[in-house]
Specification:
Layout lengths: L1 H23 L2 E6 L4 E5 L2 E4 L5 E5 L4 E3 L4 E7 L1 H15 L9 H13 L5 E8 L5 E6 L5 E4 L2 E5 L2 H11 L6 H16 L9 E6 L4 E6 L5
Helix pairs in contact: 2-3, 4-5
Length: 218
């Protein structure tokens, strides 16, 4: 019975992520540096149901939670809004404190498990010790924490291969940004459902920096 239950959970998780991809595509990539972390996302909205036809190009949704944590969500945008509304209600009693990224991940995981969201979130941030934190989740809230890199979205397969080859540990924030942009450019050249303008968010010890890369530069 336990084996059947685990298999059922895995199938539901795969189905949820696959259904996200069939809605409008999209890709997120996170990389960890020495004392910084970078999240990069695209802006192309398309659909397998329309023969990979482009539906539009809009900035993807990324939310800042606390002073050193960013949440990006691959999936249905209406579910993203709903998730963040629930997050605000959950965290309103902690508005006077700065939550750690792993605590925020547990809240997101719990909300995903108890709601039927078509989402696959990616959470990046820095701990109090300025250690990078990266966590991805499936539609059921199962967490995968990495100290190197993580990917979610339609270009995942190509980006995993590129990051495995090109990633180097202990990079400073500028080197990390250059590497993230390089991997993302190469990965999205192999995926028709992602593309358009890029947005790179870098969290450092003292600040959060945002860099926009327009399509004409790609």
């Amino acid at each position: 019975m336990l084996t059947l239950f685990i298999c059922g959970v895995i199938v539901l998780s795969i189905f949820s992520v696959a259904k996200c991809a069939s809605i409008h595509g999209g890709t997120y990539l996170a990389l960890a540096g020495k004392d910084s972390v970078t999240l990069i996302c695209d802006s192309r909205f398309s659909s397998l149901k329309t023969g990979s036809m482009m539906l539009g190009s809009y900035p993807r949704l990324c939310y800042r939670v606390g002073s050193k944590c960013i949440i990006g969500c691959f999936g249905l945008d209406s579910d993203v809004y709903h998730l963040m509304d629930l997050m605000r209600k959950k965290l309103i009693d902690h508005a006077d404190g700065d939550l750690q990224p792993d605590s925020i991940s547990r809240v997101v995981s719990d909300l995903l498990y108890n709601n039927n969201f078509l989402l696959s979130p990616i959470i990046v941030g820095l701990t109090d010790l300025c250690l990078p934190y990266i966590c991805t989740m499936d539609g059921l809230g199962a967490q995968t924490v990495s100290d190197k890199f993580a990917v979610t979205g339609t270009a995942s397969e190509g980006l995993y291969a590129l990051c495995e080859s090109l990633y180097l540990p202990n990079l400073d924030s500028q080197e990390l940004l250059v590497l993230a942009e390089k991997c993302f450019r190469l990965g999205l050249q192999r995926d028709i459902l992602s593309g358009g303008d890029f947005q790179i968010i870098t969290i450092t010890r003292g600040n959060i920096f945002v860099k926009d890369i327009v399509k004409s530069d790609v």
